[in-house]
Design goal:
With 333 residues, this protein is an alpha/beta fold. It folds into 2 domains: 207 residues, DHBP synthase (Alpha-Beta Complex); 95 residues, Threonylcarbamoyl-AMP synthase, C-terminal domain (Rossmann fold), CATH 3.40.50. 33% of the residues lie in helices and 19% in strands. The chain has 10 helices and 16 strands. The strands form 3 sheets. Strands 2, 3, 4, 5, 6, 7, 8, 10, 11 and 12 form a 10-stranded mixed beta sheet that branches. Strand 2 and strand 3 form a beta hairpin.
Length: 333
């Protein structure tokens, strides 16, 4: 199969429409990561998304809709706090889970009676979703467990020959996947951390809990259970106060004839005296936006990526640390 990368215009949107309405899949940009989209009304098309990615079929997908789409066509019981959150944060990197009306195919939610809805803010995503005017089920557009894609070239490197079209919308600005929020109870509950933080949600909704998954429980949201975001090279991870140990590991690997790179925040990058550094940046937003880009860079350059965890752990960094530990493993003590 020939995989085309096309800028988003009337011709590429028409091609995308033909592919998706014909039961195929198309990669498209959002403000967080690139998505691999199929019609949420077509069970066979959604199954092909799982197959292309190699994704476990008990890991639910998110239904993406445009900003003017009436989500009550798809879900029941939208509480007042969810309406307030939508006014505050949508379009944007927030996914909300509601009771499903069963309009979308069961494959999207993997048989659950809930449905995750997202309204991306990326202009290209909005153009595609408005053009189609149907819910599009989409996980990240990469091979399962690999680093999520934030450019069209990242998608191409994973899925070339497996999908017909990648809509190119430039580099994603947000960098980590959306916050996923369970809105089926009296107060919202964070299922997956992202750029819209628990505090931001609580300020609007009047409260917000964080869900802790129990052993053996069914996955309720993407990103809750399985290993994700992993580069193809080996990885090590050290805590924020263990820069010296990270540098020692770097030198040992280098002396063994291999190529190490240290992945770290800007202040650590400036303090260490090693040649190979993947600088995540200084601010929370920079580190979120750069994480997957730097992991993708690192796997092309390094035999081993040595991650040093950022010092800050709350706010947006909750989501960054979630992705970083899933990518690079537990912190070495």
């Amino acid at each position: 199969m020939l995989t085309q990368i096309l800028k988003i215009d009337e011709n590429s949107l028409k091609l995308a429409e033909n592919i998706i309405l014909g039961g195929g899949v198309v990669a498209f940009p959002t403000e967080t990561v690139y998505g691999l989209g199929a019609s949420a009304l077509d069970g066979a098309a959604v199954n092909s998304v799982f197959e292309i990615k190699g994704r476990p079929n008990d890991n639910p997908l998110i239904a993406h809709v445009h900003k003017d789409y009436d989500i009550t066509r798809l879900v029941d019981g939208v509480p007042q706090y969810a309406r307030l959150l939508a006014e505050a944060f949508l379009p944007g990197p927030l996914t909300m889970v509601f009771h499903s009306k069963g309009v979308v195919c069961k494959e999207v939610s993997c048989g659950l009676d809930t449905l995750a809805i997202r309204v991306p803010s990326h202009e290209g995503a909005q153009r595609l979703l408005k053009y189609l005017d149907i819910p599009i089920a989409a996980p990240s557009a990469n091979i399962s467990k690999h680093v999520s894609p934030v450019t069209s070239q990242h998608v191409y490197s994973d899925l070339n020959g497996k999908i017909p079209l990648i809509l190119d919308g430039g580099k994603c600005s947000g960098g980590i996947e959306s916050t996923v929020l369970d809105c089926t109870g009296e107060i919202p509950v964070v299922l997956r951390s992202g750029l819209v933080t628990q505090d931001m949600i609580a300020q609007v909704a009047g409260g917000c809990d964080v869900y802790v998954m129990k052993e053996g429980e069914r996955v309720r949201s993407p990103g809750m259970k399985y290993k994700h975001y992993s580069p193809s090279c080996r990885t090590l991870m050290f805590d924020s106060g263990e820069t010296g140990q990270a540098v020692k590991a770097y030198l040992q690997i280098e002396n063994a004839g291999e190529t190490p790179y240290i992945l770290c925040e800007n202040k650590v990058a400036k303090s260490i005296k090693v040649k190979n550094v993947l600088n995540l940046g200084e601010t929370e937003s920079e580190m979120a936006a750069n994480l997957y880009q730097k992991l993708r860079e690192g796997e092309q350059l390094a035999d081993v990526i040595i991650a040093v965890a950022p010092e800050k752990r709350d706010g947006i960094m909750t989501g960054v640390m979630n992705r970083l530990t899933k990518a690079c493993g537990k912190i070495i003590k």
